[in-house]
């Protein structure tokens, strides 16, 4: 049954299509300069109306993901970009996205992820993909440990900031809803893997730090670090209702990340940066536990 005929006004369908298309562009499924499927094909694939597809494409265009032209379709403008800090990282991951790095991490017996981010939206998409690989029997990690630092909902953040004060609560509520949805999804997906005896040991911990995230950070298996500042931009934010609000916002998905690898040389640029960021994360984590 079409989700938009079940009484939720298309809100869940809008989120589902929007998040899936972002994920596909971020992981390179739809490469830069390629064209998205037609609106008709997307509507058929996701079981939604053309109106929902059009609202999603408008949001993606506002965020700079795509360029849409009448009669030409929607072309991808950007993916998740990775820049490497060492020769080893360059050889291993030239031009790749976050997705292959997460995939490689989950191919190990033990997976550790230390993440500092604004909403966990990006991570949720990648973890759900790895859960499907686990269920399909393609990978079999024995342990998954996730530590995540997020800002508390009580912390006034400088973004997203509505250009009109009357819209401030709408944007704040939208941000908090995104965070709740994706942290809940992360907890649920990983808990299900343990309950289904697919991963014997799962440990998910989330702590809230009174810091405004100026960057996102992933420390993967204590050996690789992805780091990138949030890009602040003025853009229309599309609400689930279809209403557009002009705002100053940050774009996490699609932001340039730098890739640093801890190698055998403790004085190499990658090792120094990876070690320092792991130490930063550990220090904040410990402080919040006291």
TrEMBL record:
Tell me the protein's name: Winged helix-turn-helix domain-containing protein
Key words, A-Z? DNA-binding, Transcription, Transcription regulation
Among the Pfam families in the record, one is GntR
Top-level lineage group: Bacteria
Q: State the organism of origin.
A: Streptomyces carpinensis
Looking at the keywords, is DNA-binding present? yes
Entries under Gene3D superfamilies matching the protein? Winged helix-like DNA-binding domain superfamily/Winged helix DNA-binding domain
Location of the HTH gntR-type domain: 11-79
Per the record's keyword annotation, is Hydrolase included, yes or no?
no
């Amino acid at each position: 049954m079409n989700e938009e005929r079940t009484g939720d006004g298309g809100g869940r369908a809008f989120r589902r299509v929007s998040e899936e298309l972002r994920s596909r562009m971020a992981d390179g499924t739809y490469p830069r300069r390629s064209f998205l499927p037609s609106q008709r094909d997307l509507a058929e694939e996701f079981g939604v109306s053309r109106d929902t597809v059009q609202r999603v494409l408008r949001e993606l265009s506002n965020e700079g993901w795509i360029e849409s032209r009448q009669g030409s379709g929607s072309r991808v403008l950007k993916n998740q970009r990775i820049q490497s800090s060492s020769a080893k990282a360059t050889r291993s991951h030239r031009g790749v996205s976050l997705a292959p790095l997460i995939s490689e991490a989950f191919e190990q017996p033990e997976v550790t992820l230390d993440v500092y981010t604004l909403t966990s939206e990006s991570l949720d998409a990648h973890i759900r993909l790895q859960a499907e690989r686990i269920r399909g029997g393609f990978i079999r990690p024995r342990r998954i440990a996730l530590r995540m630092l997020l800002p508390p909902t009580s912390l006034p953040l400088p973004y997203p900031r509505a250009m009109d004060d009357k819209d401030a609560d709408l944007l704040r509520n939208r941000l908090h809803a995104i965070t709740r949805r994706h942290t809940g999804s992360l907890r649920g997906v990983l808990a299900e893997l343990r309950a289904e005896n697919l991963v014997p040991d799962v440990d998910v911990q989330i702590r809230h730090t009174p810091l405004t995230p100026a960057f996102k950070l992933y420390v993967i298996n204590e050996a690789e670090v992805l780091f990138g500042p949030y890009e602040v931009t003025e853009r229309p934010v599309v609400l689930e209702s279809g209403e557009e609000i002009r705002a100053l916002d940050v774009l996490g998905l699609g932001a340039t990340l730098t890739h640093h690898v801890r190698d055998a040389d403790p004085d190499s640029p990658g090792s120094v940066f990876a070690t320092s960021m792991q130490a930063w994360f550990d220090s904040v984590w410990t402080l919040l536990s006291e």
